[in-house]
Amino acid sequence: MILRGGRVVDPSQKLDAVTDVAFSGGKVAAIGTGLKADPGTDVRDVSKYIVTPGLIDLHTHVYWGGTSLGIDAEEFCRLSGVTTAVDTGSAGPGNFAGFRKHVIEPSQVRILAYLHVSHAGIFGFSHRIMVGESEELRLMNPIEAAKVADANRDLIVGIKVRVGLHSSGTSGLVPLDIALEVANEVGMPLMAHIDHPPPSYEEVLARLRPGDVLTHAFRPFPNTPATAQGTVKKVVLEARERGVLFDIGHGKGSFAFKTARAMLANGFYPDTISSDIHQLCIDGPAFDQVTTMSKFLCMGMELSDVVAASTVNAAMALRRPELGSLKPGSVGDATLISVKQGQFDYEDVVGEHLIGDRKIVSEGVVIGGRWWHPN
């Protein structure tokens, strides 16, 4: 297949130019102007669109049917331009086998996963039931988590834990320490969720290692990375200096414009932009990946930086350099987007509204070198 004449924005190559992208054998074959098509090649005129590497949503919940918060990955990914959905802890060692067999393997969309250190993952998260899985320490299952992570390295990219008042009650840092033991044992990065104290933002960051991901990084008060004076907390700057990664993970309760404005004003951009899409936020305020990206575009980030935070940066966090790029030889995934001009109403998790002048819209996806949409 050849995508002809689109504006190709690929931060992994520092590329922003009108050119063609060719795919063959499920991979990117070539980039250049006037690429020749063989008979039978699917040539698509994409001159009206922007072509990016396939978007990676680093924080999703797609164990549909296996957990009450799971959404359908294929439907979501087509509508939001995502070609790789990274599930963050929906399943733990006690139910990952079902997630793999019934959801991941049949999916036409790539699904990777952070394995939860809690036995059944995030099992009690719905409109009516809210049980913090990390609050009950009897559910922590580090030995099995290490075994399952090691046996599923093709799909499991790291270990997940949720800490904070809503997810770990008064257990504080104990679940985080258990999860870090597992991550060290299997040689994988950790993704840590944080909500309300305890523990504090500072306490969690102090324990994270280079390559670990703090998700919900631009939270509202309490547990915000910004000070009351609008500066970035010293512990946050120190954590970035040693290689901790900061992920958005918008979701139902984890992203505030006030925090984001303060961080961006200080030049502190997120490493990765992700939606934290699940059943309780898919109808707002998160909606999807491109809406989350749009919010940062409207707050002043350049399109190339927004795309980088959803492609090459996410691929590096996953330690999957074959993703998030249109370099020849990379996985043959691409996303077609357009940037609409107008007046668009965006909402954060505390009810603040932002009227933005632009909106990123998904116009189609290429997966494995083929034009894709679910049946």
From TrEMBL:
The keyword Zinc applies. The record marks 162 as: Transition state stabilizer. The lineage of its organism: Bacteria, Pseudomonadati, Pseudomonadota, Alphaproteobacteria, Hyphomicrobiales. This is Dihydroorotase. Coiled coil: none annotated. Zn(2+) 2 binds at residues 160, 193, 216. The keyword Metal-binding applies. It comes from the Bacteria. Zn(2+) 1 binds at residues 59, 61, 160, 276. Keywords: Metal-binding, Zinc. One of its GO terms (molecular function) is hydrolase activity, acting on carbon-nitrogen (but not peptide) bonds.
